[in-house]
User: Which sequence fits this backbone?
């Protein structure tokens, strides 16, 4: 091999070695960046779950189910050995999941005299905006609660969850909420104009203040015999644990 070829070969090998070194360095740098991002993400997630845990305070001080509260609908007898209160927002997807997984069992347990349950909707996600779905749906509920029977109000409550919109919308108009109220059995002449005129907004404001004053900071918040019920890390766990406690 000529000196010229040997020199060219050494140069090529040196360039290849440098390229490999640079590739390894980029790989180490990317792994390091990925590790840092992963740590940051883990910290954010832990913070989120810790904050969520803190949001549902164990220091909620609310009237028991079946008491003088004007902000909910109750099922089950007054002399039931267990009292459950569920604070909810009709837009909250977790409330929707809890409702789906507990409705039938809670209704049966209430019919069997084992529990009295009070559902207390309020505005958590609407930020007080009277045009938000959280406020309009809870306001419609209050009108049905006032103008119809508790049984019809509970049916309307259930229909709101069966027709729950996504958090990002689109959201039903108040006229559609009136349609659901009539479907639940409410007298159309008694509720339609009030629902379409959003006349339940002051009730929602009072219900939201009552929930806030009680220490409720997230939805769903469940009280079992006056104590916040938090057993489980998922809605499935929470629902299953609640029903198991009541059986």
Assistant:
């Amino acid at each position: 091999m000529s000196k010229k070829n040997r020199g060219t070969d050494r140069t090529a090998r040196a360039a290849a070695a440098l390229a490999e070194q640079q590739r390894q360095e980029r790989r180490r740098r990317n792994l390091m960046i990925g590790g840092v991002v992963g740590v940051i993400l883990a910290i954010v997630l832990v913070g989120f779950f810790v904050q969520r845990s803190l949001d549902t305070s164990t220091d909620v001080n609310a009237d028991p189910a079946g008491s003088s509260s004007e902000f909910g609908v109750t099922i089950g007898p007054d002399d039931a050995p267990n009292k459950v209160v569920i604070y909810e927002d009709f837009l909250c997807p977790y409330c929707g999941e809890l409702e789906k997984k507990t409705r039938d069992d809670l209704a049966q347990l209430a019919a069997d005299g084992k529990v009295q349950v009070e559902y207390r909707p309020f505005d958590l996600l609407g930020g007080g905006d009277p045009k938000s779905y959280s406020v309009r749906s809870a306001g419609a509920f209050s009108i049905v609660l006032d103008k119809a029977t508790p049984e019809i109000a509970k049916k309307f409550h259930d229909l709101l969850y069966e027709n729950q919109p996504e958090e990002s919308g689109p959201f039903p108009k108040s006229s559609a909420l009136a349609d659901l109220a009539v479907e639940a059995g409410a007298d159309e002449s008694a509720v339609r104009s009030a629902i379409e005129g959003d006349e339940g907004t002051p009730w929602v404001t009072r219900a939201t203040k009552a929930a806030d004053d009680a220490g409720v900071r997230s939805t769903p918040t469940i009280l079992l015999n006056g104590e916040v019920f938090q057993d489980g890390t998922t809605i499935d766990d929470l629902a299953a644990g609640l029903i198991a406690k009541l059986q």
Strands lie at 73-75, 82-88, 115-121, 221-224, 227-228. The CA atoms of residues 136 and 198 lie 6 Å apart. Helices lie at 3-55, 93-111, 133-147, 150-162, 174-184, 188-196, 201-214, 235-246.
